[in-house]
Each structure stands twice: as C-alpha cells, then as structure tokens.
Specification:
The protein is an alpha+beta fold and 307 residues long. The protein is 39% helix and 17% strand. It has 3 domains: 2-35, no CATH class; 47-135, DNA polymerase, domain 1; 147-302, hpI Integrase, Chain A (Orthogonal Bundle), CATH 1.10.443. The radius of gyration is 23 Å and the shape is globular.
Length: 307
C-alpha cells in the first residue's frame, strides 16, 4: 500500500491537491482511491486512548481472535467476533467499543503496510444504517433531561458547593468534562462573552490539545454565565496552571469529584432522581446519569456534560 500527494492545475489555472491511496486487497485486486485531504490530525494517541485500547485487547480481542494473523481476518470473522462477545455476555455498548478498537488497530497496521484492507471498516459500512435505525433518536426525559428537569437542577445547584460554576458552565455551553477541567482563564473572554476551547485534561490530569481539529472552537456565553464566572474568578485563588476550575489544591479536578460531590446532590435535591446510578454518558450536556423518579434503573437520564 502507498499513500502519495498529487498536484495538478485545473482548467482555470488553479493548483489543486489530493491524496491518492494505492493498495491490493486480499483477493489480489488493485484499488486506487483519491481523497481531498489526508486523514485528520496526525497525533500520538492520548494516554486515555492507549489505556482503553490495551484493556479492549486484553479482555475482549485477544481471547477471541488473538491467535489469528492480520491476513487471516475477514468480514465474516469480524462478524463472528461480535457474535462471540454477545454470547459471552458483553453489553451492546462494549461490543461496539471492542469493534471500534479493533478497527483502529487494523487501520494503524494498514498505514504501516502490514495489511491490505481494513475488514472492520468494510463491515461497518453495512452496519451503520442498521445501528442508526436500532438506536433511534434521543428521548427527552429518558436519554437527556427535559427543560423542566434542567431548570430544577439549576435551581438546586447550591447543593453542588464549589462545583456550581463548573456545572453551570457545562449546562449552558455543552463543554465536555475534559474541556472544562482543562479550561484556562486565558481562554475565557468575559468582555466578549466567549470561551475558546484550546486544550483539555484527560482522566489522569494531563493537559493536551483537543482530540480533533473540530474540538478547537469558540462557544458563546449567556449573560448569566458571564456574571457567574466573574464572581468565580474574584473568589478563586490563582493557580500555577491558570485553570478556571480546580480542586482544593489548585490542580486539575477529578471527574468523579465533580459528579459525586456536585452533580448528583443537585439532581437529588431537585427531585429529578430517586437514586443515583454510577454511570456517565455523552448525551446532550451529560456529566452523569441517574434514574428518573418513577422509572426503572434501565432508563438513565443525563443531567450535565462531564465526559
């Protein structure tokens, strides 16, 4: 397999560029594909991503197909791999994660010339439409909070203690937990009412750039949040990292602290949940999920985005 850049001049005289991929599949047939640009941002995987890959390989991939060579993998084998995980009791979400990790690992091998095609991607092109139909749309009050529930949570954020400004920012901006925990005052423009997302903090507290180019963005702030952040800045002691939200020692705050000491008490006080479910999801502005009053534990409700 080879990847090369091609340049040419259009009839109008404009110079254009494209990336050409030349490879041979398992049947020995040659294929050439052209792309407008090379694969997204080229960067070393984050520590969190590497840890997830290792866990998926050790617990789910290696025990099932670890004895096979890359050249032996086919679409039917990958489909059987998924079926085996389901039979062994893995949840649908874990099956998807293991399949995505397998696809990412094969993609890396393909870029290194160790395999001709990514059979996982071949499978996914057939399965995407089916999965979209099965998953359906997010339901308000089940997958994401209803407007009334959000108003009730905001009204009881006094129970969130020092996490109140962070949770209000999560609710009104939709920033991920990693982006909130890595947010600097230098990236908050209170005069213009904007937040510039330029970095994130992973689960280990390591600061780095967002995972993708789309992650770097500007988010508007409503007047209420501008006022809250002004007050928070006056009340917060300076810290070496220049972060907006920190733990009591001035370091990167831990996600579990935000969820269990901030979000969940506010949810319970607002009467939105009967009991807290120790899970999290990225749905709407999701920081953790809890069970709505009158609902079974199988119907979690997201309340604020803290991933």
């Amino acid at each position: 397999m080879s990847v090369r850049r091609r340049s040419w001049r259009s009839p109008s005289g404009e110079i254009r560029e494209a990336w050409v991929v030349d490879y041979v599949d398992q049947a020995g047939d040659r294929h050439i594909k052209t792309f407008a640009k090379k694969r997204g941002r080229s960067a070393t995987p984050t520590r969190t991503t590497i840890a997830a890959y290792r866990q998926h390989v050790a617990l789910h991939i290696a025990p099932v197909i670890g004895a096979l060579r890359l050249s032996q993998l086919t679409v039917p084998i990958v489909r059987g791999f998924e079926d085996r995980l389901r039979r062994d009791g893995r949840s649908p979400a874990m099956v998807r994660k293991a399949r995505r990790s397998l696809g990412s690992l094969i993609a890396d091998a393909q870029e290194r010339g160790l395999v001709g095609q990514n059979v996982v991607r071949s499978l996914r092109t057939v399965r995407r439409s089916v999965e979209r139909r099965q998953s359906g749309k997010l339901k308000i009050g089940v997958d994401i909070p209803s407007p009334a529930e959000m108003r009730a949570i905001v009204a009881r954020l006094d129970r969130a203690g020092r996490h109140r400004p962070l949770l209000l920012t999560a609710i009104f901006t939709g920033l991920r937990a990693s982006e909130l925990r890595g947010l600097r005052w230098d990236d908050v423009d209170l005069k213009r009412g904007e937040i510039h997302v330029r970095q994130r903090a992973d689960r280990y507290g390591t600061i780095g750039r967002p995972k993708s180019e789309a992650g770097e963005r500007t988010v508007p702030l409503p007047p209420l949040l501008v006022t809250v952040l002004r007050e928070h800045r006056l009340a917060s002691p300076p810290n070496a990292l220049g972060l907006v939200f920190t733990n009591r020692k001035g370091n990167v705050d831990h996600r579990n602290s935000i969820v269990y000491l901030g979000l969940h008490p506010a949810q319970v006080a607002a009467g939105v949940v009967d009991r807290v479910v120790a899970r999290s999801t990225r749905a709407s502005t999701a920081c953790g999920t809890s069970t709505p009053r009158g609902a079974s534990t199988g119907a979690p409700t997201a309340a604020s985005n803290c991933r």
